[in-house]
Amino acid sequence: MRRHLLLLVALLLTACANHVPIEPSQALPAKDSPLGAALIAQSRQHPAGQSGFRLLSSSTEAFIARAELIRAARQSLDLQYYIVHDGLSTRALIDELLKAADRGVRVRILLDDTTSDGQDDEIALLGAHPNVQVRVFNPLHLGRATGITRALGRLFDVTLQHRRMHNKLWLADNAVAVVGGRNLGDEYFDVEPNLNFTDIDLLGAGPVAEQLGQSFDQYWNSALSKPIEQFVSFPPSARDLAKTRRGLTDYLNAAQIEQRENYQRLMDYQDHPRLAGWLNELIWAHGSAMWDAPTKILKSEPDPQLLLTSQLGPELTNVSEELMLISAYFVPAEDGLTYLTGRADAGVSVSLLTNSLEATDVPAVHGGYAPYRKALLRHGVKLFELRRQPEQEASYNLSGSSESSLHSKALVFDRRKVFIGSLNFDPRSILWNTEVGVLVDSPELAGEVRRLTLEGMAPALSYEVRLENGRLVWIAEDNRRLHRIDREPGGAWRQFNAWLAKVIGLERLL
After folding, report:
1. How far apart are the C-alpha atoms of 485 and 335, rounded to whole Å?
2. Which residues are catalytic?
3. Domain 292-509 indexed as CATH 2.60.40.420
4. Which of 49, 172, 246, 257 could bridge 69 with an S-S bond, Cβ 3.0-4.6 Å?
5. Are 180 and 422 in contact (CB under 8 A)?
């Protein structure tokens, strides 16, 4: 009976894997595209080696930048994402991507296999276009057919499957890139009615975009990246793609009526393009792209040289006056606690903006963060937790949503340098997942991020957590009056989830 059961499990987990030739490819030279040539000419007006930057702090700007970069591209589009959710914003971008491919633009799409879970056939439809290639990173090879077998397959290979590619990158003609915290989906562009993420992206042009192109190539050509066609029984045909595109057109036409307000806001770029103006108003400064090597996920204890955090190390060590952290998911662990309290003890003003228990979309993460609060506060670290504000005018979602959860990831060093990327300050980002981001040496750009952070820390938007007589209290402002809350804000179910995560020791996996 036991042998028969094991055989049945093995048969259920067996994946259909087609042999598909894998050919390496590289980012195309930026100078060969009109977009790249224009930016090279613009860069000559600034010191050698500088790149141009613009903050994309609102969800509308973040969407418009991606859509217009598709329209501006003439030779290549490289997209790398952890999560892609279906919805109006995603379908609108896919429509633009296919139109770019129609005019001869090479499109390479690299997705973490979390996104493709159960969606192989749908994703493979994009690859039916001769100018579109789709690969999945760290794919599950066992049991892809059903939800149950996928869960079993991941369980059988948990040491590798819990390590994910968390990178978010959008690159046009190897000349202009967008990095930051946003995945693709309506919740990231203020279209989802129940939850919208407050996030921050950075548009980078020039040398930093070419550096990000190098990072994309490393992942694209990694042995861990596999063509999606390997995992479908019957590769879709051109006819299948044409049918899908007709359905996509019908969906967008219907959305123009049924989701009129969101449709008009997102599609405003079609009549009022903004990218050209943004590219003429860039902040030029020295910047460096930083990323984890894709082989990071193969290491049980990552080589420090493979970690993005090692590249950030000098900035973390040298900060001398002020350090601001913005992290949606914050679990410092013992090493982070030692670092932050050490900086505070050395006279550095250290402040953190993260989610409160009532605002986070992952209450378990709060259970990993909460035990460190008292120690941080004793050493003078200032803690601010974004509030949930479903019925108030004030909202720290820069796109104007009335309910939001913080999803941003940024660091501001001494009001001079700023890091923006996909990196959360938790063990999952530091040890298990791969990440990407950009460090910019610009007091002007750092000042913009600092100003937005201070807005988010305001008592009408965030709780300030304080330590009084050994107990935590939360300071908030309602109706223009400050008041103190003695019990952690958040419902019973969220309290239970956070407590359970703490009890069973999930910290290193959060």
Report:
1. 30
2. 166, 168, 173, 407, 409, 414
3. no
4. 172
5. yes
